[in-house]
Each structure stands twice: as structure tokens, then as C-alpha cells.
Design brief:
With 657 residues, the chain is α/β, with parallel strands linked by helices. The strands form 4 sheets. Strands 5-6-4-7-10-1-11 form a 7-stranded parallel β-sheet. The longest helix is centred in the middle third of the chain and has 26 residues, at 328-353.
Amino acid sequence: ESHDETKTENTPVELLLLKPDDKDGEIVSGLSEIDAEFVNVVHGIKNLCKQEIIKDKSGELRKPEWRDFTILLRSRTHQENLERILNRAGVPYYVSSGIGFYQRREVLDVINFLRALINWYDEVALIGTLRSPMVGMSDDALMSLATENGLMDGIYKFMNQDEDYLRQIDENVTTQFQDFVKLYTQLHEQMASLTTAELIHTILDVTDYLAILAAFPEEKQSIANVLKLVDLAIDWSGTQDISPVDYIRRIQLYQSMQIREGEANLSSEIENSVTIMTIHAAKGLAFPIVVIPELTARRRSSYSRLLCDNSDHIAFNLKTTFDDDRGYYYQFLSQSEKDREAAEEKRILYVAATRAESYLLLSAIDKPGKSSGSLWSNLKSFFDTEDSRVQVTECSLAEATDLYANFQKDESSTQKTLTADQKEEIQKMIRPLTVKKRVDNITPTAYAAWLSKRTGELPSYDRYPLSKDIFESLSSLSALEIGTVIHQAFSWWDFRNVQALSDYTRQLMKPYSLNSGEEKKLQDLFNSWGQKFVQPENALFRYIQEANAVMREVDIYAWIGNTLIEGKIDLLLKMKNDQYIIVDFKSDHIRDYPDKATMTKYNAQLDLYAWMLSYKSKLNVTNTCLYFIRNGLLIEQEMTPDIIHKTEDHLLEFIQG
């Protein structure tokens, strides 16, 4: 009961009741009951837009806009059905704090393209990219590329110009795939020089993906979701750009953990859309018009074979020997559990209904004898009374089917031909703003990059060169991928048994689906690096043998003023007399010795590690070591108080500047 004294023509609560025609109604109409209910809800929303039911700031009543409506769901089970009906009816909507963002078509398209760029042998991502609107290959085209051994075997033959194979491929398919290979090669070569946000932006640019999305339904939401991927790459970077590999890993982690991520928000003062969210997420919020559908949806109750109460009484779900009934106390506890759940359902309904400021729209399906265990079971008796002042609008399944057929979307949103000016406007929308962030956390990589720029010395070689052209032989890893594998293997290795290193690298290469010849080639390469390490003349190998403690992948943190510094040391050795040696592994391609700019950058990282341990943790760091895994080169530096003080001065300059 509202305490708002504003007079309205009718009670600001309405029930939309769907009445199924018969038991075969779904088959006859071609529309499921849940879809029919959502059709009835959307029709009710559109009707409310014609009535003056919203009180504005001056106290006057006005007609609602889309942004005034919030649909509260008990669960997201049928959210996809609701979105489809809203889209059919041309009603703009925004999903708040949903787990569906990472499953959106346009989001998966971009993520698949990134995954394929990182690893050509990620078959799922590659197929997803080829089938996406970015490339536009049909299933028939992909099937024509595949051989009896699979799609990747066909692609391998295509790339190696197998004449017998190519004669079987349609000319249009050949041209389409060659265009993709050209595009892929271009992007792959740019990966080392672009940030992840820039890489995503480049993918969108060269594929004209935003223009493609603009021609689809939900074009604004789709474009905004893709833009959000760019924003996430910027947000997750902090002071150090997040790599494409780490970006994908974080998204996959969020997908597996079902982290709630809302779609890009379009329901602002500029954009006008209906909001979809769960009742749980709406706690403490208020909305002009609240819509609560699926009141008849039954909660699923499953009781275990063992129940207990607050008095430590226990009952088992076992049949007695003399009849089929469960034990008395189990039945008692089961009923108590049902009563508790019913009370919880009433509480949830109360929370949802009291979110409405001006109008409450309810929706249910009239299913005689099937309402128990649902929100509707708590309301039905109220609407059955003759003195109910709530407006009840009934709709049959057949009528809902007619409404669905009459929903007309704006034809311009189904297919659009963009002018050059419109395309340029869309391009402006997606260019991320360059914002100078205040430094409130620092990583050694970011500090080292700043110091290199400050001294005007930049490495003269490409840090991530390709080991060979990936398209000359679809059986090699990039230098970046090789570095990732060997770094991870070194973090597990005991630095004694080369066979153990071989086992680790073999395990780490499995996701790349290499052929046996290439795997053996890389395995031999990794083994040779391991053999170099365990040679007696290697000083680092001797240090490890003599160390009292060997610590791997050591996370370290320190504060300077209000700025947090965080990093990870590859290897920390505790020697006798409590002396410490910091070791950093590098997988760079170098000839005999790294150039001065490279040493400036890497020593800056090690100096910062030494400052954190010496000045903040009061450890006696005597040496730092750079070990270049590929050629077994060890470069040692003695740590002095002068280096420590100079590092702190540079650090303060970095923060203040």
C-alpha cells in the first residue's frame, strides 16, 4: 500500500494473467507458455507507456519512458526468452549485473579472434572466428576445408599449397580464407607493438566489425558491449599494460566462475532502455515502475537423505519396513523446511514489490493446481477475492500468439546501409580516450619502462620476434609463446633433473596441439637449455646448490608514501649468513651480450626488487642475477648502498612526475 498521496485514476498495481487455452495450446500456437507470458508482459509495458502514471519532480503525472521500467527476475533461467521478445517488439533493454555479458555473441567474437591470434591451434577459437561476422565463412565452407582428419588438417594442407587438396576447394572459399590469412598475418605481426586495448581496437577497425554490428538488431547494445571490452583492457592494465594472454585468462576465469558482469550501460539520461536485473540485485534500490514476471515459476526443492534441525535432531530419508511412508520425524522436518522456504518466497516477493515507486506490474500464468511452491501461491488468494482493487488483465495463449505476430520492429534496425559520415561517427564512438592516470600502484616493468624512456635508451631489437613465419609451417610457436612455456617450466623445475624439465615443458605444450615432429623439435630445444643450466661452470647452478633456501615466484609488496609497489621475483636464493641473491630469468633472443638499453631496463627491475627487500623488508641483498635461458648467459651485479639510494630517488621522481 503506497503512502504517496498523488491521485491516479486506478490503483497503481496491475496483474497480467495468461490463461492457457488447452493442454495442447503450445503445439497449436507454436509459442511456449513462458514466451507467451513475456509477450503479455511486453504488451503491458507498451500499453503503460500511453498512460500518465509517473510522478515527476514537480509532483505532476507524466507518461513513462523506457528507462522508467525495471524487470525483476527471480532467476535468470528464462532471461534469454525475455530478451528475444523485447527485441522482437523493438523495446530497448539493458541487462544489469548479469553473467551473460561474457556469453554475448559480439563479445565471444572478439574473444575468439584474440585467442586465435595468441594460438593458431586453438581450434574452437579459430572456427568461432571464421564463422563470425568478422570473417563470414559459412558452415558449408568450413566443411569443404576439412578433411577426414578434421578442419586443422585441411587448413594445414591449404597453407602448404597441397595441389590435390586445393583442386577440391571452391574458388570463393579459397579467396575468402586467403583474405582471412592476410588479415591474421597483419594483426599477428602487430601484436608485439600494441597494447591489448589497441589490439582489440585494431581488430574492430580492420574487420569493420562495428559497422557490421550496426546492421544487426540490438545494434547500440552490441556496439557498447564491444567498447566495454576495450574499456576492460584499459581498466585491468593499471600502470602496466595487461598482455593479451593475461587478458584472455582473466576473462576465461570470470566465465568459469560466473563472475557477474553487466552489459555496457545504455540506460542513462542520453540512452533510453528498460533495465533487466534480479530481485536479489535490486535490494536497497527503487525504480519508477517495477515489473515482476514468472510469478507461477515453481521453486525447485530437493531434500537430502539427511535432515536436521536447530536442536541437533537428525532424520533419515528411509522407508519403514511396514509401509511406503517416510519416517514421522523426517516428514516433520521436511514440512518445516517447506514452511521455511515458503516464508523466504514471501520475503523475496515483498522485496521485489516494494522496489516500485509509482507502479507495480505483476505477471502470472493461471495454472489450476500447479501454483504451489511459487510466488503466485502467496498472491492468488488475494486476487480471487471480489473486493480486490487491483486491475487484472487476462490474456489467452492464442491472443498472446497474435500479439507476438503483430510486434513490429523498426525496419531500419534490421538492416542498415551506412553512409560515410555515419561510419565515421561510429569510429569516433569506439576510439578510447587517452587518460593520464594518477600513479597509485607501481610494477617493476612499468618503472623500468619509465627509466628507459627517461634515459633515452630503448632496446635496439624486437623483444618478441617470431621464431619463424607461422604461415610457412603451421607447426611452430611464437617467441612469446616459447618464452611463456619455458618461464613456467623453470618456475616448477628443481634445477637438477633435466628430464623433469622435459616433462614440464611437454605438459605445458599440450594446449597448443603441435604435431609430433614440431613437439620433438621444441622438446630438444628446451632440453638443450636445461643442459646448459646444469653445467658445473654455470655460477647460478652452483649458487642454487649452495643455497640454504630456494624460493620460486616470490610475490613482494612495499609502500612508499601512498603508492603500492608490487612485483614477482622469479627466483630468490637465501645463502649462508642470511645473504640473498635475486634471480630474474629472461628468454630474449640475444647474440653475445645484451645492449646497454636492454641492460638498463632489466637492471632497473632488479634494482627495484633489491630496494624493496633491502630497504623495506630489511633483508641483506648482496647480488642480483640476470640469466638468459636461450644461451646460458649469466650477468651478475653486486648490490651497493649507492644503487639502493639511487633507486629510491628515481622511484620518487617516477611517482611525482
